[in-house]
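cache lookup: miss for this entity combination. No prior model stored, computing from scratch. Input as submitted by user K.M.:
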Amino acid sequence: MSFDAELDAKGLNCPLPILRAKKAIGELTSGQVLKIVATDPGSVKDFEAFCKQTGNELLSSAEAGGAFEFMIKKS
Amino acid sequence: MQEASTTKRLSAEERRASIIEAAKHLFARSGFHGVSIDEIVREVGVSPAILYRHFKSKDELYEAVLHEFSCTRESYVETVVADDIGFEQVLRGMTRVFVNSIVNQPDLLKMEMHSHLEGNIASQEFFLNRWKSFTDYIEYNLTELINHGKIKAMNVEAAALIYQGMIREVLLLKCLNSTERLTDMTIDEIVDEIINLFLRIIIPA
């Protein structure tokens, strides 16, 4: 899947990945995609809640090699 | 007789939950090493065989208790998605969520104290990780403020440690002790006041 910006949130605990994602999405234009890589297992639920509350679309959420990858499309 | 039939009607899931609930209180009271499987089964009112059907060992049961705490882990998402939020607002919001979660389940704080005394690395890591949300947040933001020339350079790790220590002490005072100190203030009021003092020192006007 292609993306327009990437955020490395590895090693950070909630709410930092969310805060940094919020900032990164703020710099995108509508329809662009942000890829986020995090290691906090709680980030799966957090990004679901984040997208629900902000109206941005969670395109995918996957685990690979101990890290969690999220694709979020700006609304 | 009637009790026995009620006991039987519990589904496997309910039985598992009732064992976790009883174990939580016992671990909070006496730590991991201070509780035996016998005590736990006596408290739940089941045979050891039933407990072992759900948990292979005391270690596995302890892990399940921690897992349950992590499932109810504070979500800070709501606090941070609001518009125009600054360092102070988020710190206040996060602290309020965290403090209230412990006030509602003081067993968690007691288990944390025991885990430090017992030197159980795995559980220590679990508890330290909960505090890491704060220390990460504070370190990251203070570093940014310093880089932008908004505040003077400082050891941000030490600043985060100061904050963690203050909040922990309030929790000990309000959740575990029954002292006369600050009895006229609610825990939210004390936390608010502490954040005011912290910010005044870290970010002078």
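stored under new cache key. Chain A has a mean pLDDT of 92.
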